[in-house]
Each structure stands twice: as C-alpha cells, then as structure tokens.
Design goal:
Strand content: under 5%
Number of strands: 0
Largest sheet: none
Order of helices and strands: HHHHHHHHH
Oligomer: single chain
Length: 165
C-alpha cells in the first residue's frame, strides 16, 4: 500500500470503521512505514484530547433548528427583482447603443455635403457623356422619349356605348 492511500484511511482505521481486510493492509503498512505510524499516533493523541473535553453547552441544542431555518430561507425562489437584476445594465447598454447608432445615422443622413462632394454631384448630374456614349442623346431627350413612347390609356365608354370624350 502506498503512503498516500494509507494516510487517507488513517482516520477510519483509528475509528475502527474499515472492513477487516482493509484494516489489516493499513496495519501492515504502519508496521513498515515510520512516517505513517507517526501520523497514526498523532491522530490517536488528538482523539484522546478531544475525548477529555466537556460536552458542548446548551447552545448546541438550537443549532440544528437554526440550520434548518436557514436552509428553508435559501430554498425560497428569488424575488422578482433578484431574477431580473441583470436586465437593468443590459437595457442601459442597448439603449446607449441605439442612441449612438441613431445619432450617427441622423448626423450622416441630414448633414450638409462637403463643397467638393456637392461639386462632384453637380458635375455628374449635368454630364451627358454616358448617354451620348451609348447613342441615346442628351438626358432630356431620353426622358422626353420615354414619356412620348408611353401609349395613352384606352378611352372609357359610357353606359350608352358611346365614347366618353
């Protein structure tokens, strides 16, 4: 038997709680190992000193009812505010995030463009090079052509069967 195993069984050995086969194995180890034998003697001395102490005073009688009362208190489900306590920081964080995102969107959406960006947009809007490159002519002509090519809706007929013109 290894020392670590014998030392883990010493308390049960001193209290005579081990099965006979295990108790004999620990006894054989104690005969050969002076370190474990010294620990066994020290453990027996501790038990002897504890046996000489007077029994606890009357305060020990109410110990177990106090423990049961505390266990019953701990068995209660947590109050509603305790269960949702983590929601408050989460809600604050989400609100802050939405505020920053909304403010950024608003600032970018309605901010005046820089003079250079405005100049670029003006140049692209008046430049007909794309339309001319594909043979469509100036943009105004293309737009007029789109609306001119749209057929007129059919005329409605009245209840009498005549055209309603």
């Amino acid at each position: 038997m290894f020392c670590w195993r014998a030392r883990s069984l010493l308390s049960a050995y001193v209290d005579r709680e081990l099965p006979p086969g295990r108790a004999r194995a620990v006894a054989r180890h104690l005969e050969r190992c002076p370190g474990c034998a010294a620990r066994e003697r020290e453990l027996r001395r501790v038990w002897d000193v504890l046996a000489e102490l007077p029994p606890p005073e009357d305060g020990a009688d109410d110990l177990w009812p106090g423990i049961e009362r505390r266990l019953a208190d701990d068995a209660r489900p947590p109050a509603l505010d305790e269960r949702f306590r983590w929601w408050v920081p989460a809600a604050v964080a989400i609100s802050a995030l939405l505020g920053v995102a909304g403010g950024t969107w608003f600032a970018l959406r309605f901010a005046a463009p820089s003079p250079r960006a405005a100049e670029t947009v003006r140049a692209v809007a008046t430049d007909d090079s794309f339309a001319e490159a594909f043979g469509e002519g100036p943009a105004e002509a293309v737009m007029r052509g789109l609306f001119a090519a749209t057929p007129a809706p059919p005329a409605r007929r009245s209840a009498a069967g005549e055209d309603a013109r």
